[in-house]
Amino acid sequence: MSSLSTPSPVTPPLSADSAGATAGRVMLRRFLRNRVAVAGVVVLALFVLFCLLGPVLYPTDQTRTDLTSANLPPSAEHWLGTDAVGFDQLGRLMEGGRLSLLIGFAAGALATVIGTLWGAIAGYAGGWVDAVMMRIVDAGIAIPALFILLVIAAISRPDALGLIIILGLVSWLVPARLLRAETLTLKNRDYILTLRAIGGSHSRSIVHHILPNSISTIIVSVTFQIADAILLVAYVSYLGLGVQSPATDWGGMLSQGLTATYSGRWWLILPPGLSIILVVCAFNAIGDGLRDASEIRGRR
Amino acid sequence: MTSFWFVFRRLVQAVTVIFFVTVVVFLLLDALPGGPARGILGPDATEQQIAAFNASQGLDQPAVVRYVLYLGRTLSGDLGVSYGLNAPVTELLAERLPKTLVLTTLAALVALVIAVPLGLLQAVRQNRLVDYIATVVTFVLYATPVFFFGLILIIAFSQAARWFPSQAPQGQTVGDVLAEPQALVLPVLAGAAGLIAVFSRYTRSATLENLSEDYVRTALATGTPYPRIIRQHVLRNSLTPLIAMLGYQIPVLFGGTLVVEQLFNYPGMGLLFWNAAQSSDYPVLLGCVLIIAIATVLGSLLADLAQSVIDPRVRSTR
For chain B, how long is the longest CA-to-CA vector? Predict the structure, then answer.
């Protein structure tokens, strides 16, 4: 394994800040040695640059359709051809990518925040509060996210912001389970008991001690949540309930390109599909790398 | 006695979860724009008609009373009537659900047949070339949206090479569907792809964990041949957790089938659901959600019980 000789924390450090700094630096160092994970970061950075800076270097009109230049194959003028209503496909890939990444990031973050708080409170409270809160999580997990997402999308016909909120509201369940398990192992540690004994409040022990000490679990979780959210939003858009034209995301582009399957217009299908795969792979690689790097603190 | 209490506790848990699911479905039904009355009577209904409908259906009662009424109807097997198809939701589900189960079961079986040997091979050859290649393949499969993979399958095997039709069987009954096996190939493969990734990763890590156990070292020390240790000891211990995981994968299975059925135009519950989502056919949508949730809860219950029969350690740890 690694030659790193990190002392295992026999006595858990009292100050959350200093613990976060050292553990964080060790985690970062181990992460940077993981070639697959670093490749994930590079791929992701390239995609972010592509979506944000791309339109500056390769400006296209993504609001007005142009039927006179519809369905053109790739050429010097349109590097990836044009779609059925004349949008430049490469420009559209940047446009769609911006929304896919934005929705994925925000929904993944929102889901992690909700799940973290829910799991930490359930695990910390214990007893029947915990039982009720976790049965609610079980009930949520029993309903496939895609189905509940489509029901809500059919009722509310959301825009990008609405999609973020809905996605966050349906996908916080797994982080809630993770954080509950984490909290259960932390809540009876001596420093929490000490804090309680000297009169510290429950909310203080959760916010200032349990959450900072769970930070590696939270960071790993958010990475995987973003990957899942990008896939989920692609599904919703593909099934026709995503953002409405002229706005688009990669799933929506695939949905549009579906009719082109039989006419051989590969440039409408492959670029958005491969982009989704690459970005999701990148996030999962980063998540795996972070998880491996954080296991330095020993098995729990 | 302990096994009785284990079964009893799991049953109570399952019933509680289903109870919460009905609450969620009820709240969604209640949150519909204009309420159920507007949905059933249509956009042209007058205020008086809506009020009369609400009174006749008990919809002017407080939420708790309405929930009890809803629960009563649901328990007696009444899931409402589809707006678009003009048929009771239960009837539609009875026709569509078996076909979806055929598709999901086949996809899960294909995935297991491919993924379990693959995961074992990866574990035994950990960090060798085979393991790396398989890891990359499963990583990509996991990140591939089902519809994109299905699209590639259609382009490759239905258009370029005309081996399989791009449309799933259109038969009315399960028998009709199974009578066209060549039309089932692409939908089943599309449904299996993501599962292969999940199952093989799981088998790999479960096997690796077992390979590092003391009993493997002991067996090696007594001179038992390595292949026999794998076959007789590691295999069984690695596969029991897979049973529980199968139970937990049921929502994923149904989620996948939604897309597969839409893409290949397979007349199962997923397509029913998708059509209902396009036309805001709420009774169908919520009926499907309820059935899937119950199937999931029962599935994970059965998986847990099956696992506890095979592996006694499960009973004592919960």
Answer: 86
* Domains delineated in chain B: 89-316 (1.10.3720.10)
pLDDT tens readout for residues B281-317: 778 888 888 888 888 888 888 887 887 777 766 665 4
> Chains A, B: CB contacts under 8 A, how many?
138
**Domain boundary assignment for chain A:** 83-294
Whole-Å CA distances, A5 to A30, A144, A297, B4, B224: 12, 44, 12, 48, 36
Distance CA B268, CA B262 (A): 9
Taking CA–CA distances from A145, the nearest residue in chain B reads B255
Strands (E) located in A70-118 = none
In this prediction the pTM is 0.83
Q: Which residues of B fall within a CB distance of 8 Å from A142?
A: 17-18, 21, 251, 292-294, 296-297, 300
Please give the class, per CATH, of domain A83-294.
Answer: mainly alpha
ipTM of the modeled complex:
0.80
Look up residue A268 and give its two tokens. Answer: 């409408």
CB contact under 8 A, B251 and A227: no
pLDDT tens-digit map of B121-131: 888 888 888 88
